[in-house]
What does this fold into?
Amino acid sequence: MTWDWQVFLSDDGSGRTYLQWMMDAWSWTLAVAGCSWVVAVSLGGIMGTLRTLPNSPWLVRLANFWVELFRNIPLLVQIFLWYFVVPKVIPVFQQVPGFVLVVFALGFFTSARIAEQVRAGVQALPKGQRYAGMALGFTTAQTYRYVILPMAFRIILPPLTSESMNLLKNSSVAFAVSIAELTMFAMQAQEETSRGIEVYLAVTILYAISAFAVNRVFGFIETKVRIPGFIVAGGTGGGH
Amino acid sequence: MLGLDLTFFNWDVLSKFVLGGLRFSVQLTVVATLGGILLGTVLALMRLSGNKVLALPATIYVNGMRSIPLVMVILWFFLLVPSWVYGYLPGGMNNRAEYSAYITFIAFEAAYFSEIMRAGIQSIPRGQVFAGQALGMTYAQNMRLVVLPQAFRNMLPVLLTQTIILFQDTSLVYAIGAYDMLKGFTTAGKIYGRPEEAYLLAAVVYFVICYGLSWSVKRLQAKIAIVR
It folds into this structure.
C-alpha cells in the first residue's frame, strides 16, 4: 500500500481541510480533558479528604459511597447516564450543553479514582503530623489546610500524574455522544476518506504528544514543589 | 417514578437481549485476562532479561500501548486485522467485530498486565534467585519454579482488580458495534422505546457485578495477608 498524506489538505466538504478539522478536534479533546480535570481534582480532593476525617463517620460513609458508585460503572455507561438519563429525570439539565454533561461524566468518574489516591496519600502520613497540628491548637480544618493536605498533595503527585494521563485518554470515550473530539474525527474522517491508516496514525500521535505533555507538566510541578530532605514514598525505594 | 418506566423489563427481555451480550462480555474478559497475563508475563520477562534486543521492543510495545486510548486501539485493530484472518474462525465475517475485540483486548491488556507482572517479579528478593541458582536451576527453571509463582501470588489482588477494570472496559467495543452486555441493553431499550431506562438498568447491572467482584478481591486480599 502507499501513503497518501495529502488527504489532510483536501476539503472535508464544509470549506475547511481535514488538517484544520483535526486541529479543531484536538482542541476539543484538550478542552474536555482540561475541564474534566478541574472537576475531578476538586471533587476528588474533597471526597478523598472526607474519607480520612477522624470523627465524622457519616461523612466518611458518604464519601466511600461516592467512590464505590463512580468506580464500579463503566465510563461509557456513565456518559450515557449523564447525556440521556439525567436530562430526562431532571428537566433543568435539558438546557445544559452536551459538552458540559460529558465534562461532568468524565470529571465525576475520575474524581472517584483521585479520591482514592488522596485518601491513600493522607493515610500514608505519619500520625504524628496530625497530632502536631492538634498540639498547636489547630482546628481539624486548619490541620488539614496547613499540615496534612500540603504533604499529602506531594505524596500523590506521581499517581495523580498517571491518572491525569488516563483522564486525557478517557476523553476519547466522548465520541459516543458525538462530541467533536479526536476519536470522533478519526472515525468520521476514516469513513469519508478511506485513508484510515493515515488518519488513525495522526490522531494516535496527537494523543501520545498530549499524554507526554501532561507527563512533563507534572514532572515540572513535582520538582518545583519538592521539599528538600522529604523523600516521597516510593521515590527512592531501597531494593533488597 | 421520575418520569421513568422500568416495567418493560422482564425475564423475556433479559434472556432475549441481554444474556447473550453478557456472555460475550464475560468471555471477552476471561480470554483477555488469561491471554493478557500470558503475553504480559512474556513481555515483563523480556524487559527484565537484561538483553537489549529483547528489552527494547518490549518496552516500546508496553509504553506505546499505554499511551494510546483504548478506543483508538480498538479502532486500529478493527481496521488493520486483514479479513482472511476471520475466514479461519467460526462465523467468520459475521462476527468480525467480536473477534477483533478478542485480539484487541489481549494485545492491549498485555501491556498493563506486563507492568503488574514486572512489579511482581521485581518484588521477589534477589536471594530467592540466588537460592535457585545455588540449587543448579537453569534460568527457565528458576523463573517457572521459584520466581513466577511467588510474583503471581503477590500480585493476585492487583491482577484481579485489573480484571474488573477490564470488564468495565469491554463496554467500549461499542465503537465497533460488537454485541456485548451494554449493546444488549441499548438494543432492548430501542425496541421497547425506553432507551433511558435501559441505560439505567445497564448501569445497575454493571455496578452490582463490579462492586461484588471488588468486594471479593478485598476479602481475598485480607485472606492472603493473614497467610503471609
Notes: Residues 5-225 of chain A form a domain with the MetI-like fold fold (CATH 1.10.3720.10).
